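From the pipeline queue, job 12 of 40. The input is one protein chain; the requested action is below.

Action: predict structure.
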Amino acid sequence: MEKKNCYIYTRVSTSTQVEGYSLDAQLESLRKYADYRDLEIKGEYCDAGVSGGSIVGRHAFQNMIADIVEQKDNIAFVLVFKLSRFGRNSADVLKYMQLLIDYDIDLISVNESIDSSTQSGKMMLTIMSAVAEIEKSS
């Protein structure tokens, strides 16, 4: 059986997180998950020291989206550590979730065990994107 392909996206917003364990911890967790699910990692995209409030300045995220639109690697999944790493603006999260749906790609938030391939996962992603936006503004 052929392995399904995935991208990994990681992000930290502060220099403290960049210098600490967060990026490495995210990558390690996502790589282990991909291995567990027998997924082939076709790309790792990392935005270090960048806010998730907008996609402006998130060059790795923008590159990942461009690769998805170009259908560069025939991926089936995008893996993130937490939904807040994907974004902290509900409108952006939902916009890019729709783009993933349009390309038949599922988003998996590994730490939160949320998978957009299920109806309950789609509902949780919508709710969690609103929570992430509220946390950002607090």
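Job complete. Residues 119-137 form the longest helix (19 residues).
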